[in-house]
Each structure stands twice: as structure tokens, then as C-alpha cells.
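Hey,
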Amino acid sequence: MSELLKVKVHNADICVVGGGIGGMFTAISAARHGAKVVLMHDRPVLGGNASSEIRMWISGAGTRVRDLQETGIMEELQLENMYRNPKRNFSIWDSLLYEMVRFEENIELILNCACCDAEMEEGRISSVKGFQLTTYTWHKVNAKIFVDSSGDSILAPLTGAEYKVGREAKSEYGEEFGLEEADSHTMGMSILIQCRETDSPVKYTPPAWAYDFPDDNAMKNKPHDLYAINTNFYWIELGGMQNSIDDTEEIKDELLKIAFGVWDHIKNHGDHGAENWELEWVSFLPGKRESRRYVGDYVLTQRDVEECPRFEDTVAYGGWQIDNHLPGGFYMDAKGGKHLQKRRLSEPYSIPLRSLYSVNIDNLMFAGRNISASHVAFSSTRVMGTIGVIGQAAGTAAAIAVKHGMLPREAAREKIGEIRDALLEDDCFLPGFRRTPSELSLAATLTCDYGDCTALLNGIDRRIWGCDNGYFGKTNKAITYSFEKPTLVKGVRLVFDSDLDREYTEGNPDGLHTTSVLFFPKSHNNTSFGFPKCLIKHYVIEVMDELGVWNRVLEISDNHQRFVKHKLNTVAKAVRFIPLSTYHSETKTEDYGSSTAHIFNFEVY
């Protein structure tokens, strides 16, 4: 009887299914590169596992290896949250995620809409259809390219796209961590809890249906120190031995019994220093780690993650450790870390574009924990920092494919240089590659009032592998591009130091985890979680006209982003950038705490 309900039809270049971090970044990057995008998401809030519904912080390569923090859209989001949400309030966080998508030109956002059907024509997807519960309306989206960021890869069963579930045998890819025989087991899903220390004792009475864990052995010796705030009790995990899609609701019910029982153990069984602690929040939506993984033209393996070959079609990177949660989850004893299989990585590995599109459905791409990877490689690629850069890569590639009237595989073969250049231009880091400076910058004469600024044109916009790659200047001292004759300058590109390692960001007890805090000791109740001191807040752009007169064309007094591009569209004999510590009126302005101007890039184009 579904034909009795209203159907709304949308036409787009690219349809993204799923609004987690991967889907968000796919949609944003595709839209910024000129594609018309529809994003269909089945929840009321964006962010997936990072949203207020689940509250997992965003981790990635930079969490494990110095200098590898993800930039591009990821750093844009992190800085916006640090600037506007110093208390790490989840409602504000949700609003920032919503804002990034809802008010991005070229994106049509459809929330509370679950993708339920797909139509095929000659081996390609022609449309998808979703039901929006809040309006009781069907939404049909026609598009040229479809990107599945749904996590559970909903378009696989709907289209016949090849996919895998479970753990491979050693013989399939020659992986050290492979099994003797393949199975269908996966990593489990977790329910997270949020707690706060108060000024007075707080009693806790568990629900009658919660499990009872009278001692640590009953709780399988899982770590539960309330002051080790980075643990987040991830080990409240089940589902690896079941079907991680079909059995989700049953698994969720068991996880809730465990979660409330764990809090009962902490409060009422033994001395955990929890007398004044209260339970603020428990998720009723499990954070899922693994289900279906698509098969692409290339399957990333353990060898790729550990040996780090450089692919010609590199579009993203990872660096999180091999972090394989064994299927038994909560019911495996944690002594000696026996419920986990881990191996740290020493350098970033590359992710090829061939792992982001389907091997058998020509116009299907994927961006999320469902990319084309073995189970072991997936145990590293699955974290949201990596998913974010994968999403930006997929969206950029999809938009460039649409621009040239190509399918993803054709674009990977014929336009990989353009795709990679666009990613580097948009402040994405790609191991083994450097951005080519603009022709106008290379043709001009670069000078600075202080020091040596030649590093601004080296094509690397971060401190990495022992090299700073930046320019240390002083406030009120200019960096200038001069031209032989009056020249049309369309704009400028700037990359500032945003303290990617968060070494100089005070008051943040979670280190790099700038998205969320789940455990609040009393000492942190009144804490604002810091902002990078080294970021340049106040600067001006000036141009010299044909008469040799300097004119101020732009002044920014509240910058809080690392990567900035400004349009100028003016004819100039010279262009200069001046970081300021005072307004031009000589009125003192507040900065973020540093008088040094550390800049990775200033270019004209």
C-alpha cells in the first residue's frame, strides 16, 4: 500500500546514502566542487558514531602517529567545534554537523529517511528510494553516481553489488592475522555511557533487568577506572558472534543490561572512588564497528597497511593501529588484552581510489567503514578520522567524474591527477605527494620583511618527518608577491599552523579528542577545552595598484581556521599578507596566545 503515500522526486548529480562522518564529508566535498548533491540519512542528527546519539570521539592517524592529524574538512570541523563549543556540549556539536551540511550550497539534506529500495538500468543504479518517518513520505533520488556511506552497505543487497562479511583465511591474501579457515564473525558493537563527578554522594539503584557483576571476574576484568577518561568503556561490546545487521536489536538489549550492570558494579560493588559520581547518559543506539564490506577493484590488505606501498591512485591515508576487536567482545577476559588483536603502525599507509568504487556496479562508490578492505586492514581503516578523509576523497572524485561525464572507474584511470591535485589544494595530506604551487606564485617574486619564507612554496603544508615546512614570521611584518607588470590576481590561499598535535592547546583533557568527553571528573566541571594558541587570528591582505599605492582589500580579525582561501579578482602590481597583533586603528586585539606567525602556505592565484 506504499503507493498511497506521497512520493517526492529529487534529481542530483550525486546521491549520498548515510550521513555519518564519511557521508557528510563526501557530500560537502562533492558540493564544493560543483556537483548537485542529495544526502539521505536515516537519523535526525548527522555524524553517525560521532553524533550525540552514540558519542564516540573521532580518532585517526594523528591519534597514534605524530604529525599525521587529518586536515581538510576534518580539521575545519574540529577547529569550528573547539572555537564555538569549548564545553564540548553535544547539542552544539550536533548543530555544527547539521550546519556544515544543511547550509552548504548544492546539498539537499533529507533526514529521518531510510533507504529502502534501488532501481537498476543496464547494471547501473538509476535511483534510490527512502521512507521519511517524520513526514510519512517516500523520497526518490535520481542521480548519476551513488555513494553508500550507510555503514551497513544498504545498497549492496538492493543492487547486487559484491560484498564480504567476516574474517578471511590466511590463504586469501597471505595475511599474518588471517585465520586458518574463514568465518562470518565480525567485530561487535558498543553502547557508551557518560558520567560526571558531583559535589556530594549520589546513590544508584540499577533497573531490575540489569545484569549483576559482583566482582571484577564477573565483569571479565575489563578496565573501569573513572579517571582514565580516554577509555570510554568501549568494551561494553557484543554482536561479533551474531549477525551484526539482522540481530542488532537483540544485541542492543543485551548491551543495555550490561551497561547498567557495569555502572551498578562501579557504584555498589567495591571501592571505585565513585561515591560522588552520577550516570548522566546511556546510549540506546549501539555504535557499530563492522558489517558488510564492499568489494572494489582493489582490496586493501594487512600487507598494504603495514608495508605502506604508494599507489598511483592514492586519494586518502590511514595510520590508526591494527585494532581488531575479537568477536567474543564483553564475554572475553580482558587480562593481557586478550579480547583485542593490536599492532601499532609507524608511518601512514595509502588508500587507493580503486578501493572506493564497486567492482561490479559501475556508478556505485562507498565512503566509510564499508570500503574495499580485508577484515584485518579494515581494523585500521574503520576509525572516523580515516573515514573522514576517505569521504572527502570519494566526494571529490565523484564530482570530478560527473564534471567529465565519466564513471568512477574511468575517472580513476584518466583523471587521477586532477583528483589528487584537488585534494591537495583543499588541504588534504597524501603520503608521498606534494602540492604544486600556483603558476602565478612561481612566476612572481616572493619576499618577506623578516626571515626566509621560501618554504611557503614547497608544497607541503604541515610539519612532518622532522621538517617544519613552514615560515616563522613576526606579526606586523609582511610577506609580498611582486609582479613584473600589473596582473589579475583572482585570490589567495593561506594555510596557518593550527597545532595539529595539540601540543599547545591548553585545558583539553582528551588530547586530540576534540569532539567529545564522556567522563567528567569534578576538576573538569568548569573547564573549557582550549584552542590552538599558535593560530593566526588577525591579518590583512593588501594590494599595490598600478600607481604603486598600497590598498587594504581584506581584514580578518577573528580567524579560527587553518585553511583559508579568499577571492580578490583585482589587478595588482603586488600582493602582501600581514599578520597583525593590533587593529589598523592601533586598538589592541586579542590573539590566541602567540606573537609568532607560523604559516605553511601563502600563495596567489
